[in-house]
Design goal:
With about 260 residues, this protein is an alpha/beta fold. The chain has two domains: about 230 residues, P-loop containing nucleotide triphosphate hydrolases (Rossmann fold, 3-Layer(aba) Sandwich), CATH 3.40.50.300; about 35 residues, no CATH class. It contains nine helices and twelve strands. The strands form three sheets. A six-stranded mixed beta sheet has the order 6-7-8-3-9-10, sandwiched between helices. A hairpin with a 2-residue loop joins strand 1 and strand 2. Helix 4 crosses helix 5. The longest helix is centred in the C-terminal third of the chain and has 16 residues. The protein is globular and about 55 Å long. The termini are far apart.
Length: about 260
C-alpha cells in the first residue's frame, strides 16, 4: 500500500434540499482495494458520484492526491480518477477496441482524433484485463462479463491512479463475476487505488483489503476486511438473518442470507 490517492473527510452528500449521507470519511490508497457495502438506498452511489466530482459535496471535503477535488480541472481529474459504471449496453455497435479508445478523451484536445499511441494504449488495456482477443468484436457480440471488462479497460486507457466501480458484477452470471473480480484485484496489483460497491460480502472478503459498511447514509464500520465482514456486522447492516459457513481448511468463511428457521 502506498500514498493516499483519494480522501473524504466528514463528507455530506446528496442533492439540493436533500441530504443522503453525512459524516462520511474514508481514505483510498494506491495498491489496495476498498469495498463499500450497504443496503439499497443507503447512499453508496451518491457517495461514489461525490467522490468523482459528478455531484458537489454538501459539506466536508474531498481531496485527490492531497489537493481539493474542486480545484482540479476536469481533464486533469479524468487523468487521475476513472469511473466504471454499472454494466450498460451500447446503443451503437462499437468494437471493444473503439470503446476502450474512448478512454483516451481526457488526453486529447476537443477535436483531436486518437493516434497510434492512443490505440496502442487501448490495446494494452484490453490485454491487461485479458480480452485482447476481443478487440475487433462488436460489444453487442460479447458476454455481459466481457462488456464489463471492456468498461474496466476503457477506464485503464485513461491511465488513472484510482478507479471507482459501481456494482461491477450486477446482473452478471457466476462465471463472469469471477472474471471481473480477478480483474479488479489485478488493478491493485499494478499499484492502482480501487474502490468498488457491492451487495455481496463474499466478494468483498475475497477481493478487498478493507471494507466500509454503510447504512442510512452513515458508516457503521470500517477497517480490515476480515474484521469488518463478519456475521454480526452483516446482520446489523442488512437487518436480516445471516448464515456463516466456515471453511474446514481454514480459508475465509462464506456468508449467506438466512431464509429458513434452520439458518437463523
Amino acid at each position: 500500500m502506498t500514498a493516499t490517492m483519494l480522501e473524504a473527510t466528514d463528507l455530506s452528500v446528496g442533492y439540493p434540499g436533500r441530504v443522503v449521507g453525512s459524516g462520511l470519511s474514508l481514505a483510498l490508497h494506491g495498491g489496495e482495494v476498498l469495498a463499500l457495502l450497504g443496503p439499497n438506498g443507503c447512499g453508496k452511489t451518491t457517495l461514489l458520484k461525490t467522490l468523482l466530482g459528478l455531484l458537489p459535496a454538501l459539506g466536508g471535503a474531498v481531496q485527490l492526491q492531497g489537493r481539493a477535488l474542486a480545484a482540479w480541472p476536469l481533464a486533469g481529474r479524468a487523468r487521475v480518477l476513472a469511473y466504471v459504471p454499472q454494466g450498460q449496453a451500447s446503443t451503437f455497435g462499437f468494437s471493444a477496441l473503439e470503446m476502450v479508445t474512448m478512454g483516451r478523451t481526457a488526453h486529447l484536445g476537443l477535436i483531436a482524433r486518437p493516434g497510434a499511441i492512443d490505440i496502442a494504449i487501448a490495446r494494452d488495456a484490453l490485454q491487461r484485463v485479458g480480452i485482447a482477443h476481443l478487440a475487433e468484436r462488436s460489444v453487442h457480440r460479447i458476454s455481459g462479463g466481457e462488456r464489463q471488462l471492456v468498461l474496466i479497460a476503457r477506464a485503464l486507457a485513461q491511465q488513472p491512479r484510482a478507479v471507482l466501480l459501481d456494482e461491477p458484477t450486477a446482473s452478471l452470471d457466476f462465471g463472469n463475476q469471477g472474471l471481473v473480480m480477478r480483474a479488479i484485484r489485478a488493478l491493485a496489483g499494478e499499484g492502482l487505488a480501487v474502490l468498488f460497491t457491492t451487495h455481496d460480502p463474499n466478494q468483498a472478503l475475497r477481493c478487498a483489503d478493507r471494507a466500509l459498511l454503510m447504512r442510512e447514509g452513515r458508516v457503521l464500520a470500517g477497517g480490515a476486511v476480515a474484521q469488518v465482514i463478519e456475521a454480526e456486522g452483516l446482520r446489523a447492516l442488512y437487518s436480516a438473518g445471516v448464515l456463516q459457513v466456515d471453511d474446514a481448511a481454514g480459508g475465509p468463511p462464506v456468508f449467506l442470507p438466512a431464509f429458513g428457521e434452520q439458518d437463523c
